[in-house]
Amino acid sequence: MKKVNVILILTVIVTFWACEPKRVPIIDIPDRQLFSKADSLFQKQFYEESLAAFEEYLFQFPDSPLADEALMKLGTIHAILGDSKNAVGIYTRLIDEHPESDFVPDAQFQILATLYNLGEYLEVIEKATDFLKTTVSASHILRTHMLLGDAYMAIGVPMDAVYWYAKSFNQLKEPEKRDLIEKIKAIGGQLSPEEILSILDRIEDKSTAGYLSYQLGVNNAEEEKYEEALKVLSAFVEKIPEHEYAPQAKDLIAEIKKKFTYNRFTIGCLLPLSGPYKTYGKRVLRGIELALNHHSSQNIDKPFRVIIKDTGSDPVKATQAVIELYDDGVAAIMGPILTAESAAFAAQKRGIPIITLTQKEDITDIGDYVFRNFFTPKTQVKALVSYVVKELGLKRFAILYPDENYGTTFMNLFWDEVTAHGANIVGVESYDSRITDFADQIKKLIGLYYPVPKDLRDVPIQPDSEDPIIDFDAIFIPDAPRTAGLIIPQLAYHDIKETYLLGTNLWHSEILIKMARRFVQGALMPDGFFAGSASVHVTNFVEMFQEAFGREPEYIEAVAYDTAMLLFQLVGRPDVKFRSTLNKELRKLKNFSGVTSLTSFDDNGDALKRLYLLRVEGEQFIELGQH
């Protein structure tokens, strides 16, 4: 038998025998003497001996005036000894044989308690409902309400359990009342807000309603439904200000208002406006300023404010700036560029959505309030490989890369992506980023590099005596335009001419065309933005930017513009009143139409974009489409 059920039975029994009046037998009559003996053993808790004595008594004197009490105690002994089935049988016998007995209501309740002990919860509920229609005992009513609550909990219907517990609350004394409070609080933690609201409509007791109202507020807050939490908690404090949980409700209200609400139409921005990277910070700032001016001109009723903080590319300053923006009540934060990790940790801790502008690996793994609106090496490689394999039908690739972090990262990503597409890497060579002559590396790729044995070093050799083995359809060179501009003519010199040239977004530079000229024709590269795009969004943006700053915008300014515009759009919505709501809307964002293509965020907070794919034709770059 479960311990909790034994405790229930014993509690009921002790309460029953403590409260019920007992008929004291006259000792000088034989049947009374035997009853007294059995009862004495019962009172001394010699239950086995008492059981036998009461059975003997009922066998000898079945029609005695004390037979009903003997049956009652006999059923109780069976219950104490764990023989629940026999206990129910004895109680039922008492009811059937002595329907007018004062012990009938007690036997009926004991049947309920014993059935509960047997796990017959549905039968308890059925019989208890009937029992409540006939009994007038306040004690029986109270205990039956509690038993019904336990039975409904046992069958997994906590809403009905709370209803019956609530009917018991005011009749209980300490410590039972405190135990019931803990039960109700625990149940409240299992229920949905809708279920708690349904229960509140059914119960009248203010104390119980207060516990449930508070729990509903807590549940809403934990689910980041702060508007609903504030409504429930505020109503709770107003209606039941004397409730013991009212102070906690007030504290939670204050915490929600401080931590999760924000000043409407206020956004923070972290940029390196001083220090070695201030040039990049100022370029991002231009994109944000253009977005603010454009949005303000179209939405005069929504005067957005952008609070700029200079990080100086210092992680400590970036963290402090996040704290200051939190105190300023900003809705979200844009940036930073280089100190994204420290800023992201600080923003995540305070529940502020932050959209970083960085390629730093795994930045969005910091938490669910951290986003990235920036294309990464991985997205570049995916777009490029998908195009050349699926659209051009290329199957064999070579990689020539600088032996440093940038080159190694792209080399590994490109290799993995080519393999994932069912194509092959047939040659890989690295080079020192400080060299300008790449002949040895190129010869190794095409089978013309022959190390000379020591004993033959004085013998003249003819390095061009054999034809190059060019067994690849394309060669990928992840390096800056100046280095690529040196390598590409040397490829042609070694007869690598009918091969596709593939690069990263760094190749999207006039420097590459000026240095490699005719040798770079047809070269392919991805980029996150193309000022020459035929897109109306891009055309309008480029015109606005040129008018404001006198030159064409580049990717960093374009993505800053898009980031600001999508935040203005979301924060300006009347239904977005909490940072948590803004965070959810960012995660639900699908195909925001910006100048850096359509933007969505994946489950991890990384931007999903279709990159521009470009090709060199003559003295310019031509858009092939978005991939």
Describe the structure.
It is a single chain. This protein has helices at 3-19, 30-43, 47-60, 67-80, 84-97, 104-118, 121-134, 138-154, 158-168, 176-188, 193-200, 206-222, 226-239, 246-259, 278-298, 315-327, 340-350, 377-391, 405-420, 439-446, 481-493, 510-516, 536-549, 555-571, 579-588; strands spanning 266-271, 305-310, 333-334, 354-356, 370-372, 396-402, 424-431, 474-476, 500-502, 524-527, 592-594, 597-601, 607-609, 612-617, 620-626. The chain has 627 residues and is an alpha/beta fold. The strands form four sheets. The protein has a five-stranded parallel beta sheet with strand order 2-1-3-4-5. The chain has a four-stranded parallel beta sheet with strand order 7-6-8-9, with helices on both faces. Helix 17 (340-350) links the parallel strand 3 (333-334) and strand 4. It is elongated, with a radius of gyration of 41 Å.
Termini Cα gap? 67 Å
Strand order of the largest sheet: 2-1-3-4-5
Report the structural category. alpha/beta
Alpha plus pi helix count: 25
Report the mean per-residue pLDDT as an integer: 88
Number of strands: 15
Indicate the overall shape. elongated
- Work out the helicity level: 40-55%
The unreliable regions are 1-12, 18-22
What share of residues are in beta strands?
A: 5-15%
Largest sheet, described in full?
5 strands, parallel
Q: How large is the radius of gyration? A: 41 Å
- What is the quaternary state of this protein? single chain
